[in-house]
Amino acid sequence: MGSKNKSDAAKGPVRVGMPSDFRIAEVTDMHRQLSAALDVSEIVLDGGAVERVDTAALQLLVVFQHEARKRGNAVQWASASAPLHDAASQLGLAEVLTLPAKQPA
Amino acid sequence: MAKILAVDDSASMRGMVAFTLRSAGYEVAEAENGQLALDTAAASRFDLVLADVNMPVMDGISMVRELRTRAEYKGVPILMLTTESNTDKKMEGKAAGATGWLVKPFDPEQLLATVKRVLG
Amino acid sequence: MSNISIAQFHKVFFEESLEGLDAMEAALLALDEGGDAELVHSIFRAAHSIKGGSATFGFPDMAALTHEAESLLDQVRDGRRAIDKSIIELMLRTVDCLRGMFDRAQSGQPLANGESESLKQQLAAAVGHAGPTATKVAAKPAAASGWIIQFRPHAGMLAGGNDPLRLLRELAALGQLVVEAQLDRVPTLDALDPTECHLGWRIELTGSVSREAIAGVFEWVEDECDLSIEPLVAAAPPPAPAVEAVSAPAGAGGAAGTTRSAAASSNDAGSVRVGIDKIDGLIDLVGELVITQAMLDQFREEFDPSRLAMLQQGLAQLARHTRTLQESVMGIRMLPIGSVFNRFPRLVRDLSQKLGKQVKLELVGEHTELDKTVLEKIGDPLVHLVRNAIDHGLETPEKRRATGKGDIGTLRLEAFHRGGSIVVEIVDDGAGLNREAIIAKALQKGLIKSGEGISDDEVGELIFQPGFSTAAVTTDLSGRGVGMDVVRRNVVDLGGTVAIKTRPGNGTTFTITLPLTLAIIDGLRAAVGDECYIVPLVSIVESIQLPAEAIRSVTGGGELFRFRGEYRPIVRLHQQFGCTNARQNIEDGLVIVVEADGNQVGLFVDELIGQQQAVVKSLEANYRRVDGISGATILADGSVALIIDIAGLIRLQSRRKAA
Question: What SUPFAM superfamilies does the record point to (chain A) (predicted)?
Answer without folding.
Answer: SpoIIaa-like (SSF52091)
